[in-house]
Amino acid sequence: MLKWLGTALVLITVISIQACAPKSQEDCGFVQNVYGERISWKSDVPVTMYIHAQVPDSMIPAILKAADTWEKTAGRKLFNIVTSTRYTGPINPHKDSVNVIYLMSSWEDNRASEQGRTSVYWIGDQIKEADIRLNAADFGFYWNGQTLTRAAKADRQGSAPVNIEALVLHEMGHVLGLKHKDGAGSVMATYLASGDDRVNLAGADQTALQCEY
Ligand SMILES: [Zn+2]
Questions:
Q1: 16 pLDDT more than 60
Q2: Number of domains into which the chain is organized
Q3: What integer pLDDT is reported at residue 21 of this predicted model?
Q4: What spacing in Å lies between the alpha carbon of 5 and ligand 1's midpoint?
Q5: Which of 5, 17, 54, 73 shows its CA 20 to 30 Å from the CA of 142?
Q6: 117 CA to centre of ligand 1 in angstroms
Q7: 133 with 93: CB under 8 angstroms?
């Protein structure tokens, strides 16, 4: 009897999954879930992002500018970057329902070439949280011709710095759900060279954004 019940339940589960299976979509530059649906915030409410207290004040205008660049293309507010207060929790990006931009003074040795990383958490096709890490261990940052920080690691302090606006622009693309796109001058290219002032969206980025925003 128990065995029969188990079989029946399994069958019901399978049927319900098939009945609800969503339709696969074109990726349009976005990360897709296991069903092939594009993931994004699916909301008109701007994404509230906090800035960790470790991020120097001098980086805030660059962060706001990067958000503004995406918003100009979308024609609406996408981000609510909180500047009235700072996030003061531990420098430990994790799933906590708070979107935070972290400046990391330590970074995995085997990923030292990575300038930044964005963790995106989603349920179904809807993003629930995104955290940005900026690698201040291996890289120094500049903006508008001014050096803002030098690499925390002594052996990397003399290396060429990275445009913080260009880096945040790329990571914010991930926050919105975009994946890497190499070529076409995209700001979502996998690599950002030191000294590259890539602060304008390419046509490909604008087209991609409009699929979801
Ligand atoms: Zn990336």
A1: no
A2: 1
A3: 64
A4: 48
A5: 73
A6: 6
A7: yes
CB proximity list for 128: less than 8 A, separation 6 or greater? 97, 121, 122
Q: Does residue 22 form part of some domain?
A: no
- Ligand 1 centroid vs 4 CA: distance in angstroms? 50
pLDDT given at position 9? 47
The larger pLDDT score, comparing residue 75 to residue 8, is at: 75
Domain that holds residue 134: 38-209
CATH number, residue 109: 3.40.390.10
pLDDT at position 14: 53
Distance from C-alpha of 163 to C-alpha of 212, rounded to nearest angstrom: 27
Q: Over the stretch 118-164, which tens digit does the pLDDT of each residue have?
A: 999 999 999 999 999 999 999 999 999 999 999 999 999 999 999 99
15 part of a folded domain: no
CA of 188 from ligand 1 middle (Å) equals 6
The closest alpha carbon to 63, from 182, 165, 177, 212, belongs to 165
**Ligand 1 centre from 179 Cα, in Å?**
7
**Two tokens at 123?**
């349920």
Mean pLDDT score across all residues of the chain: 91
Distance 53 CA to ligand 1 centre (A): 23
- Ligand 1 midpoint to CA 158 (Å): 24
Specify if 150 maps to a domain: yes
User: How many Å is the Cα radius of gyration of the chain?
Assistant: 20
The pLDDT score that the predictor gives to residue 165 is 98
Give the confidence band of 5 by pLDDT, cuts at 50, 70, 90: very low
Strands in 146-149's sheet, in edge-to-edge order, are 146-149, 141-143, 162-163
Ligand 1 centre and the CA of 60: distance in Å?
A: 20
